[in-house]
Amino acid sequence: MRKIRNDELGRKTVDEFKSALKRPLVLVLDDIRSLNNIGSILRTADAFLCEAVYLCGITACPPHREIHKTALGAEDSVESKYFEDVTVALRELKKNGYVLAAIEQAEGGVSLAQFKPSPAEKYAYVLGHEMNGVSEKALALCDLAIEIPQEGTKHSINVAVCTGIVVWDFVLKSTG
Q1: 101-150 confidence digits (pLDDT tens)
Q2: With contact defined as beta carbons under 8 Å apart, do 145 and 139 qualify?
Q3: What is the rounded distance in angstroms from the CA atom of residue 74 to the CA atom of residue 26?
Q4: Mean confidence (pLDDT) of the chain
Q5: Contacts of 161 (CB under 8 A, 6+ apart)
Q6: Are the C-beta atoms of residues 9 and 160 closer than 8 Å to each other?
Q7: Count of beta carbons in the 10 Å neighbourhood of residue 166
Q8: Residue 158, CA distances (Å) to 32, 38, 101, 127 in order
Q9: Cβ-contact 124, 146 below 8 angstroms
Q10: Cα separation of 27 and 54, whole Å?
Q11: β-strand 122-128 against 98-103: which pairing, if any?
């Protein structure tokens, strides 16, 4: 066994990425404060051909040196759009036919294990602040809440790690 070299991986160029068919998934960052988390989420969006990342509220926007540390160039390939108010972003997505799913522990929420995205729908996953989660005003506009089952002592998972889990789950369930 040997590691595959980067030049053997056949990755897209930034231009190829921009013109590639994307998954019908937008990631909405609701007041994400950590620049490292923002960069990691952009990198995940690049890895799995997400349609876009919406940056809302206090969420910082590229270009930024600290975002680049973890995005490693994904900030150049992934479409991103800034909204001062998350509700404006969510209303725009809703108007454009997206199902809004808060990634949050909420009454009436569905376990990620049970969630099955419909191939006929476009989705926007709303990911919340590192300490406070998805805001109440964003949650009020969502069609559903998806919860990642957890068994440890902590009540949450890091938002960038959480994003990787739910996006990979979306990929598996929408292509399998």
Answers
A1: 999 999 999 999 999 999 999 999 999 999 999 999 999 999 999 999 99
A2: yes
A3: 15
A4: 97
A5: none
A6: no
A7: 22
A8: 11, 12, 18, 11
A9: no
A10: 6
A11: parallel
> Between vectors from CA 72 to CA 16 and to CA 19, what angle results, nearest 5°?
15
Q: Report which of 173, 172, 160 is spatially closest to residue 71, judged by C-alpha positions.
A: 160
Would you list the DSSP string of 69-84? HHHTTHHHHS-EEEES
Task: Report the distance separating Cα 58 and Cα 80, nearest Å.
Answer: 15
Q: Which amino acid is at 159?
A: V
- Location of structure tokens 């109440």: 136
State if pTM tops 0.90.
yes
Q: Tell how strand 80-83 and strand 50-56 pair up.
A: parallel
Give the pLDDT band of residue 175 (cuts 50, 70, 90).
Answer: confident
Tokens coding 83: 């909204």
CB 75 within 8 A of CB 42: yes
Tokens of 173: 């369930």
DSSP code at position 132: T
Strands across the sheet containing 23-30:
80-83, 50-56, 23-30, 122-128, 98-103, 144-147, 110-111
CA torsion, points 51, 15, 38, 82, in degrees to nearest 10?
-70
| Structure confidence at residue 176 as a pLDDT band (50, 70, 90) | low
